[in-house]
Fold this sequence. Notes:
The chain is mainly alpha-helical. It contains 9 helices and 5 strands.
Amino acid sequence: MISKKQIGWARTAGWRSSCMLLAVLVWSGCATPQYDPVSGRQVRNLYTLDDDIQIGRGVIENALQEFEEQGIPVNQDQQMLSTLSNMMHRIAAVSHYPDLPYTVVLVHTNIVNAACAPGGQLIFWEGLYDPKIGLVQNEDELAAVMAHEIAHATARHSTRSMTRNMPINLALMAGTVAASLADRDDLALWLGAGFVVYQGIILPRYSRQDEYEADRLGLFYMADAGYDPRAAPAIWRRVNERERDPGLLRYLSSHPTHRDRYRELERHLPEALERYERARGRAE
């Protein structure tokens, strides 16, 4: 006679096999790399461009709701919002995807940050250009940040990252389900924690390669839009001079070090300056 324990293990094995099969089937659908005209490389992305747009809209809706719940004002400075909007459209027009539904939200806190959700949904915090604590000091430097964020959208880094993470996410989820069905709550807890750590530390939202790619693309976008590309490495050179190099911490960070960023940007600067001069010539 089959014991309850044996039935439990059989049921667990069945669920584990089913979940792992699902992981394999889902991943196999996007396993074949396709040429990406933005990066110029073979990349994997399970999502469509329309998916990016819908995901981005959801991100912005949630962010706006969170700001409202916390009493954080948005879009109050109409003059600055207009400046950001004009800059966004000017840079987007020379990007690989000029027809994305680009939007920008201005958040009135002293946070020094900017972000771009999939599909071209931008958020800028006014601390970014604050005279005392800000990262940027003039229009060209603001354009450098804007172009970098737009490059994340055109290179579709968010959904590419989601695609990269999918197999391990599904495997961890399958293991958690199997452990729960086997009444192994301790194992399920550890697997669940592993999922969080994997998402938050081992594979952050943007990889260092993504950041370098966004820096390079953004440098060319701002140059093509008529903004001085020398502003981009200038930002990170200045920040590097103000802060200590994180050394070994660079390998735990999603972003390259400040020194690595400005050196890589300077490597592409000759081409960017040529594009900048052509853009200025067209404007005259």
